[in-house]
Specification:
The chain is mostly helical. The protein folds into 2 domains: 33 residues; 68 residues, no CATH class. It is built from 4 helices and no strands. The N and C termini lie far apart (69 Å). InterPro entries: 7TM_GPCR_serpentine_rcpt_Str. It holds the Pfam family 7TM_GPCR_Str. Keywords: Membrane, Transmembrane, Transmembrane helix.
């Protein structure tokens, strides 16, 4: 398919706009109201690390351009691939975890606290 044709560009543009609007909607309505428990944070980090390791090993074995003569490039590929996979997995997994917390049954609560004035600043004035 020609990348300059309308059959390629129109779905690409609409898909990008739809993805961006869904991400902004999710962030403003769901992510701001969702609080992770410490156990869920631990499992989130473990699952994303395991997925990152599996993804990076698969990429290194099947897709990496590791050549025998270029050692600096090989070291860069070996170091950057797991780090990038971990970041991507963490970004991708936070959406289902927050949706599962938001859509689960339970009591909704809000945390409020009293406002305290900064006494040090008032004394200096």
């Amino acid at each position: 398919m020609n990348k300059n044709s309308y059959r390629y560009l129109v779905p690409l543009i609409f898909g990008t706009l739809l993805s961006a609007s869904l991400l902004v909607t999710w962030h403003s309505h769901i992510y701001s109201r969702t609080f992770f428990k410490p156990d869920l944070q631990q499992s989130y980090l473990i699952v994303s690390s395991v997925l990152a390791i599996i993804t990076s090993l698969g990429m290194l074995f099947f897709k990496a351009n590791i050549t025998p003569g270029n050692t600096l490039k090989n070291i860069k590929i070996i170091i950057c691939t797991p780090i990038a996979a971990l970041i991507v997995c963490m970004l991708i997994l936070v959406i289902p975890f927050s949706l599962s917390i938001y859509l689960s049954t339970g009591t909704q609560s809000s945390y409020t606290t009293a406002y305290k004035k900064n006494l040090r600043r008032q004394k200096k004035l």
